[in-house]
Amino acid sequence: MRRVLALLAVLALPATPVVAQHADHAGHAAAIDPALAAAVADPLREKDRARDKYRKPDETLAFFQVAPTMKVGEYAPGGGWYSRLLGLYLGPKGKLVGLYFDPTTGAFSAEAQKGIREGAAKYPAEVAAWSGQPADRFAAYPLDAVPEREKGTFDRILVMRMMHNLLRWNIADHEIRRMRELLKPDGMIGIEQHRARPDAPFAFTDGSKGYLREADVIKFMEVNGFSFVGRSEANANAADPANWPEGVWTLPPSLSGAKDEADKARLRAIGESDRMTLLFRKRP
């Protein structure tokens, strides 16, 4: 059914190239750049590799059409799982930029604002240490402090499992529009996000449970100046019912609220959340 819905959505779009060139009919990445495959397999990722089966980083980045010579922004890098891989992949020939929340939006306490700015300041050196690449291959800015010269220079920006927070904190429009300013005229945003069922009620899809409806994310991005390029099912998980009362954090890796080891084993057998993987192009 999901494939049928995906096909109907594509057919309803204007007669322009809307399916990513690196996707097959199922939306999976069709070809992996050898440099990306080498980065994914790098021994420096040994501790991160356990989550590859859930996060499919090679298929995801190939679907987002990330090339090793590009300037790529990673929004809200968090614990650095994707940063470590992107540092290996982009460090030799490209540029990786950590894009941090605008701390002045009103969503953050004074302590959180300080942490955001400190995180951005440390990011280049951290990614250099993780990847073994020179620190000048990396940069980072809170979105309120991006230099004017950076606008219109990014090939890609990646927003990984963060849209639910932007919506529940009521800063999504502001942050996405700031990111749009940074992209080149043909630049694209790749979004990976926990996916709710199409008929899920608003109370479950307002961001508070971690899950969003795919149609809502597409509409939101279109309203904010983007054209929908296509979707991938690389990060789909049909075993996730996406209806956990306590939200997505019930599943691995959080296992929040698990009663005992047997319960943890049951949740680990389900795996990480069902996720949409969507690509959008900056609209003129």
UniProtKB/TrEMBL annotation:
Keywords: Signal. Residues 1-20 form the signal peptide. InterPro entries: S-AdoMet-dep_MeTrfase_Alr7345, SAM-dependent_MTases_sf. The keyword Signal applies. The keyword Plastid does not apply. This is Methyltransferase. It comes from Novosphingobium aromaticivorans (strain ATCC 700278 / DSM 12444 / CCUG 56034 / CIP 105152 / NBRC 16084 / F199).
